[in-house]
Amino acid sequence: MSRLLDCISKQLLVSFVPPLHNTTTVPRQEMQGEKMRWSNLFIPTLREDPADAEVSSHRLLIRAGYIRQLTAGVYSLLPLGQRVRLKVMQIIREEMNRVGGQEFFLPALHPAELWKESGRWEVMGENMFKFRDRKSTEMGLGMTHEEVFTSIARHSISSYRQLPQVWYQIQTKFRDEARPKSGLLRVREFTMKDAYSFDVDRTGLDKSFQDQYDAYCRIFTRCGLKYTAVEASSGAMGGSQSTEFMVRTEAGEDHIVLCEKCGYAANVEKATSKLPDVDDGDGATATEEFPTPGVHTIEDLTTFPGGASADRQIKTLVYVLDDNVALVLMRGDHELNEIKLQDATGAINIRHAQADEIREALGASAGSLGAVGVTRSSHPKITLVIAEEALRGRRNMTTGANKDDHHLRGVAIDRDISVDKWASLRSVKAGETCSTCGGVLDVFKAVEVGHIFKLGTKYSDSMGARVLLADGTEVPIIMGSYGIGVERAIAAAVESFHDKAGIAWPASIAPFHVVVTPVNIKDQELFGTAQRVYDELVKAGIEALLDDRDERAGVKFNDADLIGVPYRITIGKKVKEGKVELMTRSTRESEDVSIESVVPVIAAKLEASIT
RNA sequence: CGGGGCGUGGCUCAGCCUGGUAGAGCGCUCGGUUCGGGACCGAGAGGUCGUUGGUUCGAAUCCAAUCGCCCCGACCA
What is the Cα–Cα distance from A21 to A593, expressed in whole angstroms? Predict the structure, then answer.
């Protein structure tokens, strides 16, 4: 038994690295001197729900005394919150180290100059906190650290012999979100583990990427999270392969497409599906214009006499992509996904065109727009006509005539429209067919807790990080970028594991493993037993909390349920029979256990749930 | 950035429409009774009503400006 406990205590409490700045590990309880007595701790639980909290994780983390809001999107972590954060950070740290990661600690304060080199000072725009120092030098708060890590690499790495390298840090990131919301799920200041790999070639990058992928799976599994790794858009910052680690929750803002049958999983920003073939018949030999007074929407045209069903229409959207006007062609019943448009065109800023811009470019107003006959010479304002894949080869379609209150029918895409580019631009809908296996696709909401992708040479090129190969040629370093949002993972855990009474933490990230609750502290026998059990738990390396408050049992039970400690040992009347109660928070099941065996029983349960 | 809502003891809120100098519940302090799922009785402490300006004899209340927070949307490597 002592071997078993020893083993657990190592798993739970060993510090792998010395404390550095804000990233210390949870101190060993037995070395703290002070006992973890509830009466001495700052655990400000609230009896009522906070008024401003909507989502469960936000509501519960505040009510259970884990966090307090300082200002919009900025939260203080109270002692319980910090304990959980340190647990998550320690798991991340161990798994990063396991795949050869070396921990750094980089500044949060960055000179604008560095970000201008990579071009992201402009790209990030308002999302970056920017200001001037006393000398009037432009500065920013780091949103991420590609630039800083790359600047270190370019100064100190010059030979292929020094590669590969995997560098990481766990540090505060700042993003001036337009709309912070949902407690810790979307904030302006947060802890991120960001890692970067540096390799000589693509093969090296593939290995580094796979290492990180494996590490992420272990991290989220150890945190007790049920995650799905999905194909994702790498966004405007570029990257060839992009995987997001998502936790399913209604509070999430991302939409994930999943095939239960073959396991295909992708963010809707990336997902594709197979649509049934459409038989268009032979098609008309030429287009025919017809008047459509009062018809301004796809819906209008489906009911208009001589109109067409939505899947027989071409929807023409006008977008401004980095100051260039583009026509986006979608099937009438399909929805454009703007991220896909961004990915397909490489545009950084995209927006709907304004009414006057539309009229200037096409000579008609929204509701009567079409791409038939639109060419560079006929419509010089239009720089791109991009069409959705589902429109390929379609005939007998109906679309706007670029003449108010008129439409065209008998349109054949290949014959009548000059398409510059084809792309997958539509959002997949639940119930569509999986293009891999033919199964049925499901769509659900999720929160992104991790994101890994291959950067390639974007930063090494722009910032000049190069190495010499054995043959003397100089090549840019190939990079990868790998992030985890620590507080977001915590919030995702609460979203996943809670009930009406409060939080039910996975044991691996719970602030304490056990709470010892004497039903009445004035009863010397009960309280004495509680103290002995507590001492033995601590000795066994188990993180215990003694609820020594002079409160009624109901208050203590409710608080214990609220803060979500995985196990509760209730010390009550049955002490006279040599027994205590062991309650499992997640199932709320209770069992009587003899006083002597309660510590080993808990140790065994923890060993089973903490890996 | 567009739309909506809200700022009143630590927390959740009432009072505002119809101006007259601030209330409840919870929490907190003290005393007593209670004691296995947020007890009860009694006595207390605690608020420049977000801020600034205006109207008025008098403003939490009416007007204006401003700051902040929340929600929806836009936005979001």
Answer: 42
Residue A1's pLDDT band (cuts 50, 70, 90): very low
CA of A557 to C1' of B38 (A): 9
Q: Which nucleotides of B are covered by protein (CB under 7 A)?
A: 1, 11-13, 25-27, 34-39, 68-77
DSSP letter string over A564-610? T-SEEEEE-GGGGGTEEEEEETTTTEEEEEETTTHHHHHHHHHHHH-
- State mean pLDDT over A426-441: 94
Cα separation, A250 vs A185, in Å, equals 12
A521: nt with nearest C1' to CA: B35
Q: Which nucleotide is nearest to A144 (CA to C1')?
A: B77
Q: Could you read off the pLDDT of A136-165 as tens digits, one per residue?
A: 999 999 999 999 999 999 999 999 999 999
Q: Using the CB atom, is residue A108 less than 7 Å from strand B? A: no
Strand B contact with A390 (CB < 7 A): no
Which residues from the 474-503 window of protein chain A have CB within 7 angstroms of nucleic acid chain B? 481, 483, 501
List domains and CATH numbers for chain A.
2-34+512-609 (3.40.50.800), 67-272+441-494 (3.30.930.10), 288-423 (3.90.960.10)
- Separation between the CA of A599 and the C1’ of B27 (whole angstroms): 36
Give the pLDDT score at A29: 60
pLDDT given for residue A602 in this prediction:
97
Give the CA A435 to C1' B60 distance in Å. 63
Of A344, A352, A347, the closest CA to residue A419 belongs to: A344
Strand B contacted by A236 CB (< 7 A): yes
Amino acid at site A122: E
CA distance linking residue A264 with residue A87, whole number of Å: 32
Return d(Cα A161, Cα A138) in angstroms, integer.
Answer: 37
| Residue A490: Cβ-neighbour burial (10 angstroms; 0-12, 13-18, 19+) | buried
Structure tokens at A527: 């309280």
Residue A411 one-letter amino acid: V
State residue A284 phi and psi, 5-degree precision. -70, 155
Residues 247-266 of chain A sitting with CB below 7 angstroms of strand B? 253
Amino acid whose CA is nearest the C1' of B12:
A48
| Angle CA A16–A157–A193, to nearest 5 | 35
Strand B close residues, chain A 431-470, CB < 7 angstroms = 451
**For residue A518, is the peptide bond before it cis, meaning its omega torsion is within 30 degrees of 0?**
no
- Lookup: tokens for A475: 């090549």
Which residues 509-548 on A are within 7 A of strand B at the CB atom? Answer: 519-520, 522
Is A328 in contact with A347 (CB distance < 8 Å)?
no
State the nearest residue by CA to the C1' of B13: A51
Shortest-distance nucleotide from A63 CA to C1': B11
Cα–Cα dist A429/A426, whole Å: 9
Q: How confident is the model at residue A238 (pLDDT cuts 50, 70, 90)?
A: low
With a 7 Å cutoff on the CB, does A283 touch strand B?
no
pLDDT given at position A247: 96
d(CA A256, CA A428): 9
Count CA within 13 A, CB hemisphere, residue A223. Answer: 36
